[in-house]
Fold this protein.
Amino acid sequence: MRRFYSKVVFLVGCLVLWIPDACCQYKFEREYRINRQEVPLPAIQWMDSLMPDTRIRWFVEESQLGRTFEAKCRWEGSRFSIEFDSSGIPLDIEKKVNLEDLKVVLLEQIYSELDTRFKIYRITKVQAQYPVNNETMYDLHKDGSLSLASAPFFELVIHTKDGAVSQAYEVLLNSRGELEEIFAIVERPTTNLEF
Amino acid sequence: MKIVLRILLLKIGIFWCIPISGIAQPPVTAGFLPKINLTTGLNDQTRLNASLESRGLFYDKLAEKSSALQYILSDLTMLVSRSMGFRTSLNLGYTLRLTNGETIHRTIQQFNLIRNLHAGRLAHRFATDQTFSPSESPVFRVRYRITFERPLSGDEVDEKEFYFKMGNEYLVIYQVENSGLEIRLIPLFGYEINAHSKVEFGVDYRISEFLASPYPESQFWAAAAWYWSF
């Protein structure tokens, strides 16, 4: 009897494994990689003129706000992400930076801003955001870098802890370290890495 | 990131070198390893995880027989997982193993640590378990598993996208009559059906009996798993 029961358990296990999941959740943002041929020509030309001989990975980002293209690359030792609209016009430039590279005054303001909202937190990612304007382009063409002092916005990813509850946030701060936007990051379940 | 990958590759390199040395005909078994894994949140800090994993054997060189799929066992596991903060969790649980004519009990303790990488995730699992069966003396195991997950499109896995997952686990096993070491290498391809459901397929390769026998025993399992969080 026990042997029979064990076989039933095994068979049910195999069968349920193949039942397709019928429910689908709406997701607000999706990013996937595309080939260079699928990117609008103005975006390719813009990138080639700005960062020649650089390996560029192209992505599409779909959200409620629309469909944009994103170029990601390493250039002059930094990690860049440049967003384009659907016709290939550049929208903004993001550069990954180290927290320690920010000015002490700005850092203090950032910590002060975060301290008012969270008891325990850890900053895990910092990106400087630049608009695509004459000043940014002049800096890029001049010496291939962007000054942190000229960044109007900084995007931070922070992991917070309240008791045993942890939550990640994406925080947008201006150049004075004042909070502009904050929203919670919905993290993917980690069950397949834990169990 | 580069350092982590180098360590992982070094580990894998060492792992593959061990069984090659001086073995003419190592004992080999092969089978099917399906798993269903369900997780639900009890509150903000606590989750309940239940899984059913079965084993079916279709090749057993050790027993000098090759046959159609032969049922071996089923593991019913229940874990309570408590968040400890920044992507760390403590899991405590119990496994009921149903095998031919025997019921085996296992208690489990796990500590998980997960980190987001620029593209992908890295997970460490430290675990101990104790197995009790009516026919054998208790088995005590200390385990460490490192798992790397990388999306095959983009920097983050979105729904309806594939990913690659590589697991590497080391088990130190203590039993009065048969202690030893087991190493596992688990390369899997996954598909994210939606934010709460994913399937994985691949190979679960295990090599053991390093100390007890001059010929380490190899096990190849065709692994398939379905994870559902609700």
User: Anything to note?
Assistant: The first strand of chain A starts at residue 29 and ends at 34.
